[in-house]
């Protein structure tokens, strides 16, 4: 009996790049999967089942073994800090995490920073020796400095369009971000053959592939 790999796929902007990468790697995901609203998609001909998850939840599904493997941005991986193996840098969804402010920003006594990534942001400012209050938001982070909720934000920059259109400036880029292939610790042992075979296929089509050390 062939085993089925349960794959947590991130819904939204990473999905398209991830499914294209799979296709380039010789895993022919049917085109209609890209447009479906179904959340669990059996792909028996590929020996897989896709679980369409909110990106921030992918590490949770993988940590608990509800999915064997998953695709997730390094930003989410760092923020969520789940007990999973990081197998492969897929080199897709490339962007950066930056500190962003209004152009006339001045350091004040009590600084507030809004972000979707409170753990990563807090650690960064701690390392910089800067005392800031971190405020967690869930989206449209650029709004915060525009309406006085925070002095600065820590957020993702891809094309820079959101910053430009809202008159904000990037002060410093703190992390380069790409999507990663992660695995459940038990699945990695129990389904090692099929996980390794997928890794090998993906590795061949990633231009600047970096096989990372497993995350402990
Ligand atoms: C992300 C990010 C920025 C924007 C950056 O938001 O938080 O707002 O994309 O992309 P750009 O540099 O190409 O403009 P997303 O669209 O994922 O939605 P969100 O605001 O709800 O987080």
TrEMBL record:
What SUPFAM superfamilies does the entry give?
Periplasmic binding protein-like II (SSF53850)
GO biological process terms on file: L-histidine biosynthetic process
Which E.C. number(s) belong to this protein? 2.4.2.17
Where does the protein end up?
A: Cytoplasm
Show the GO MF annotations.
ATP binding; ATP phosphoribosyltransferase activity
* Keyword ATP-binding attached: yes
Q: What class of enzyme is it?
A: transferase
Q: Which GO terms describe its cellular component?
A: cytoplasm
Pathway note: Amino-acid biosynthesis; L-histidine biosynthesis; L-histidine from 5-phospho-alpha-D-ribose 1-diphosphate: step 1/9
Question: Which UniProt keywords are listed?
Answer: Amino-acid biosynthesis, ATP-binding, Cytoplasm, Glycosyltransferase, Histidine biosynthesis, Nucleotide-binding, Transferase
Q: Which Pfam families match?
A: HisG
Q: Which reaction does it catalyse?
A: 1-(5-phospho-beta-D-ribosyl)-ATP + diphosphate = 5-phospho-alpha-D-ribose 1-diphosphate + ATP
Question: InterPro entries annotated for this entry?
Answer: ATP_PRibTrfase_cat (IPR013820), ATP_PRibTrfase_HisG (IPR001348), ATP_PRibTrfase_HisG_short (IPR024893)
In terms of superkingdom, the source organism counts as Bacteria
Principal place of residence: cytoplasm
Establish whether keyword Manganese is in the entry.
no
* Ranges for domain ATP phosphoribosyltransferase catalytic: 54-203
- UniProt similarity note: Belongs to the ATP phosphoribosyltransferase family. Short subfamily.
Assembly, in brief, is:
Heteromultimer composed of HisG and HisZ subunits.
* Stated name of the protein: ATP phosphoribosyltransferase
Instruction: Give the organism the record lists.
Output: Paenibacillus kribbensis
UniProt lists the gene as hisG
């Amino acid at each position: 009996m062939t085993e089925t790999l349960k794959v947590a796929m991130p819904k939204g902007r990473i999905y398209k790049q991830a499914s294209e990468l799979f296709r380039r790697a010789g895993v022919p995901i049917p085109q209609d999967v890209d447009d479906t609203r179904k959340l669990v998609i059996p792909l028996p001909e590929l020996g897989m089942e896709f679980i369409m998850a909110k990106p921030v939840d992918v590490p949770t599904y993988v940590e608990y073994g509800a999915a064997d493997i998953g695709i997730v941005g390094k930003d989410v991986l760092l923020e969520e800090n789940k007990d999973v193996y990081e197998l492969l840098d897929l080199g897709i969804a490339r962007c950066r995490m930056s500190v962003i402010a209004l152009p006339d920003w001045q350091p004040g006594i009590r600084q507030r920073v809004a972000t979707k990534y409170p753990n990563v942001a807090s650690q960064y400012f701690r390392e910089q020796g800067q005392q800031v209050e971190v405020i967690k938001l869930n989206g449209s982070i650029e709004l915060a400095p525009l309406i006085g909720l925070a002095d600065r934000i820590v957020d993702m920059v891809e094309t820079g369009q959101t910053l430009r259109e809202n008159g904000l400036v990037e002060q410093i880029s703190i992390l380069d971000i790409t999507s990663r292939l992660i695995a459940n610790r038990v699945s990695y042992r129990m389904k090692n053959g099929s996980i390794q075979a997928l890794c090998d296929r993906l590795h061949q089509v990633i231009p600047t592939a970096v096989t990372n050390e497993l995350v402990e």
